[in-house]
Amino acid sequence: MIARTTLAAVVTALAALTVLPGCAVSRGQSTVGEYVDDTTVTTRVKTRFIEDKSVDASAISVETLNGTVMLSGFAKSSIEKDMAEKIARGVPGVKSIRNEITVRN
């Protein structure tokens, strides 16, 4: 339990560090606030994957843009793929999901 909490804290800290370079906003890019919101959503989804042993968090990538979460990578079964989507939908700030996870046989 302590290891999960520590891992979640490390993931959150690393995600926070990625926000610093994003302070400059160019035309066509998200605002700093949107970038921070998307980073927070991504971190929360990844943390929930780590906490839930029904999905392999290391095999699934998570990206967020304007509240749309894209899941990619590999799952061992369609059940795992569906569970990853269900977990992501339960995260505050998620507006929609693009589930591009490939099921390996």
UniProtKB/TrEMBL annotation:
The major lineage groups are:
Bacteria, Pseudomonadati, Pseudomonadota, Betaproteobacteria, Burkholderiales
* InterPro entries membership: BON_dom, Lipoprotein_DolP, Transpt-assoc_nodulatn_dom_bac
Q: Which residues form the BON domain?
A: 37-105
Task: Note whether Repeat occurs among the keywords.
Answer: no
Which positions carry the signal peptide feature in this UniProt record?
1-24
**Protein name listed in UniProt:** BON domain-containing protein
Q: Which UniProt keywords apply?
A: Signal
Keyword tRNA processing assigned to the entry: answer is no
* Superkingdom of origin: Bacteria
| Annotated organism of origin | Sphaerotilus hippei
Which residues are in coiled coils? none
Among the Pfam families in the record, one is: BON
